[in-house]
């Protein structure tokens, strides 16, 4: 049986001259089989042999886990069409000279980078980090290709801090496809209204017209930009952010109360409350019997915390209920009145938020749009942040996110 190494390598236009199968690597010496090249000046066939060109080292897909290196001999040809007879070195469209590898191998590297760090891939593949970064920059564009989208329907606007302590914000603009998977549209520097507005304006008109809803945090910079560029879109305050607001209010109350209890209770009594933080944070229906007992004990010591906790759960229930926009507003206003009647102050600033954003918050009940897909994106961003050296710039963040979301399809073998 004759086995063709060319067939195994699956590279058209390659002629293998020598093959060396070592323990550590497979070395192939080869040349481009054609006897001409495309003139770099006129684009026509240059057929007159001029000289040997350089030999290029190209990494290719491994065979039986052994890395494959192709040493490709090239030739220079002179153009007889151009008057000054310029010469051009042969080049195959199946390799990426800058990355020193075949395009098939480059694709496999890009797939490896999905969900992984460049440093990890560099180590596993024993390849230079700079080559990987170069591939990422050449193969993944720095912004969304609007031509790939036919409609947007929902948009998500979210600000993310790249540094601990709420610094270095970027704005993440996203959408979701028909299957609910996130689509990254942009990572913008900062969170200024003008920046967001300019981005929204960069969406082609026919796509802009398809935006029905925008799920956003309660931040004027975002909502005003949306109102100006997408006046027909319904703005929905993101339920996760609303919940964050009132849950944080209870956390504050818990801190004060625990502080007071520490002073009032005997040390062993106070120690009996260990674990209440987690029990308080979880949703009531998810609690175990022990956690319920623990909360009972806590609430006996602190009736005020019981009241706050009940109010928090009651508010969550409102969001869980199938309200109309109007009945939701009535339920929320009843809740607000109840909070005020208790004299509890921990919800004070949240009450103001509710008042200011009532329209956008109750818009949630019209279609129950949540930005679940944004949460998924945020988790990816967290991982990317952890894996980056230093702070990723918005463009890098966009590329990494895009690759994580689309890489396996875009660079399929
Ligand atoms: Zn020419």
Structure description:
There is one protein chain. The protein is of the alpha+beta class and 413 residues long. The chain folds into three domains: 5-139, no CATH class; 146-238 and 373-410, Nucleotidyltransferase, domain 5, CATH 3.30.420.10; 240-367. It is 48% helix and 23% strand. It has 17 helices and 14 strands. Strands 1, 2, 5, 6 and 7 form a five-stranded mixed sheet that branches. Strands 12-11-10-13-14 form a five-stranded mixed sheet, with helices on both faces. The protein has a two-stranded antiparallel ribbon with strand order 3-4. Strand 11 (167-176) and strand 12 form a beta hairpin. Helix 5 packs parallel to helix 7 (220-229). The longest helix is centred in the middle third of the chain and has 26 residues, at 239-264. It is elongated, with a radius of gyration of 30 Å. It starts with a helix and ends with a helix. The model has no long low-confidence stretch (mean pLDDT 92). Bound molecules: zinc ion.
């Amino acid at each position: 049986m004759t086995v063709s190494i060319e067939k195994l390598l699956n590279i058209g236009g390659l002629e293998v001259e020598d093959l060396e199968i070592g323990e550590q690597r497979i070395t192939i010496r080869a040349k481009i089989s054609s006897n001409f090249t495309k003139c770099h000046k006129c684009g026509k066939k240059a057929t007159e042999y001029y000289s040997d060109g350089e030999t290029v080292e190209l990494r290719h897909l491994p065979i039986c886990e052994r890395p494959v290196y192709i040493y490709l001999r090239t030739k220079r040809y002179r153009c007889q069409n151009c008057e000054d007879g310029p010469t051009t070195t042969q080049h195959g469209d199946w390799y990426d000279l800058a990355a020193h590898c075949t395009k098939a191998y480059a694709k496999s590297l890009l797939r490896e980078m999905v969900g992984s760090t460049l440093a990890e891939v560099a180590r596993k593949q024993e390849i230079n980090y700079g080559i990987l970064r170069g591939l990422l920059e050449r193969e993944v564009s720095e912004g969304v290709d609007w031509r790939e989208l036919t409609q947007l329907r929902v948009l998500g606007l979210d600000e993310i801090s790249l540094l601990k302590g709420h610094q270095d914000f970027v704005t993440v603009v996203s959408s979701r496809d028909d299957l609910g998977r996130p689509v990254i549209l942009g990572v913008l520097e900062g969170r200024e209204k003008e920046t967001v507005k300019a981005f929204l304006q960069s969406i082609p008109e026919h796509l802009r017209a398809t935006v029905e809803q925008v799920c956003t945090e309660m931040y004027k910079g975002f909502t005003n930009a949306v109102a100006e560029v997408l006046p027909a879109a319904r703005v929905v305050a993101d339920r996760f952010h609303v919940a964050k607001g009132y849950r944080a209010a209870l956390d504050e109350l818990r801190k004060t109360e625990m502080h007071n209890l520490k002073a009032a209770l005997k040390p062993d009594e106070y120690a009996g409350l260990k674990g209440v933080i987690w029990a308080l944070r979880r949703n009531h229906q998810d609690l175990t019997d022990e956690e319920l007992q623990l909360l009972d004990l806590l609430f006996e010591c602190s009736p005020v915390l019981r009241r706050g906790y009940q109010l928090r759960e009651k508010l969550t229930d409102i969001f869980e209920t199938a309200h109309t926009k109007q009945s939701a507003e009535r339920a929320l206003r009843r809740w607000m009145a109840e909070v005020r009647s208790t004299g509890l102050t921990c919800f004070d600033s949240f009450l103001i938020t509710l008042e200011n954003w009532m329209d956008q918050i109750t818009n949630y009940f019209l279609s129950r749009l949540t930005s679940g897909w944004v949460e998924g994106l945020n988790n990816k961003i967290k991982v990317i942040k952890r894996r980056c050296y230093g702070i990723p710039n918005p463009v890098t963040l966009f590329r990494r996110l895009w690759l994580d979301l689309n890489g396996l399809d875009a660079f399929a073998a």
